[in-house]
Amino acid sequence: MGALSLSLSLAFNCSSSSPSLEPNFAPTQASSDISSPNPPTCPICENTVTQDVPLKGSEDNQKATGNYVPAIRHGEWADIGQRKYMEDTHVCIEDIAKKFGCRALDQCSVSFYGVFDGHGGKDAAHFVRDNLPRLIVEDAGFPLELEKVVARSFVEIDAQFAQTCSGQSLLVANAGDCRAVLSRAGTAVEMSKDHRPCCGIERMRVEALGGFIDGEYLNGEIGVTRALGDWHLDGIKSADGGPLIAEPEMKMITLGKDDEFLVIGSDGLWDVFTSQNAVDFARRRLQDHNDARACSRELVEEAIKRGADDNLTALVVCFQAEPPAAAAVQRSRVRRCISAEGLQSLRGLLGGGQD
């Protein structure tokens, strides 16, 4: 799914030849002219070599303003360490305004350096790395109110990432008699319904469009009421419409911690499995080996054992890295009691006699 959090540290260096901006730029001010004939463009970077950035006229500017002027250099390196995945990333931009086409700074430049440590994945770290610098530059207070701008940008980028996280959704679109079933803590949740002539809603739609149901078949010819193709069937589908349509029914949910896996199967599978039966079967197999492909194969093999004679396809999509948890046995708590008379009778039967 992707990381939903990260830790980050940022450093800004504000360089300016204009003394009037000094109170607003922390930590330092300096000339923005770079003596290198081909100054680096400073794209968002990964591993790079250290770069020297001598500042032209820095000695003269220091004498004029009485301020210390740094000769900025940077270098960075990253390693995956002993972890299975690399979740760190970083960014180095020597002139953030120039990078994003901001013309507000004629006599100064703002450098941007950041390290982003993802928690449980790299998504958040990469999202902030790719979007936070631009957000800072586009703030109306940049660069004169840099501290306030950065504080606002942190909150805003967090809200923007939250919007991307809300997209952890499941959308199922179905036309025909394939079926998708979600396991939610072991309970089957049907994410689609079969479009067959026996369905009451589909029957009404078909009849309203001039079709009819003959036994289990639409117009006596086809066993579904929605499908792609079948243009060769006269009176069922045409450019002007007809009872057989390709429009899918869709269902969308936000996935939660109890949503374990999805089983998608062709109608041959559902001829011999109920939705709950398929979830129970798949859940036990995943608890054994946690292998989605093996589970799909076992569903098909079990359907054959149960007498399925149609084409069979099963697809299992897992939403969690760990296998489904074993269902807790709910033991009923029944209060057991006996009356005084009953206790006396029981004692008599057991030879206890009277007190």
From TrEMBL:
Keywords: Hydrolase, Magnesium, Manganese, Metal-binding, Protein phosphatase. Residues 17-38 are annotated as: Disordered. It catalyses: O-phospho-L-threonyl-[protein] + H2O = L-threonyl-[protein] + phosphate; O-phospho-L-seryl-[protein] + H2O = L-seryl-[protein] + phosphate. It comes from the Eukaryota. The keyword Hydrolase applies. Its cofactor is Mg(2+); Mn(2+). PANTHER family: PROTEIN PHOSPHATASE 2C (PTHR13832), PROTEIN PHOSPHATASE 2C 27-RELATED (PTHR13832:SF684). This is protein-serine/threonine phosphatase. It comes from Spirodela intermedia. The lineage of its organism: Eukaryota, Viridiplantae, Streptophyta, Embryophyta, Tracheophyta.
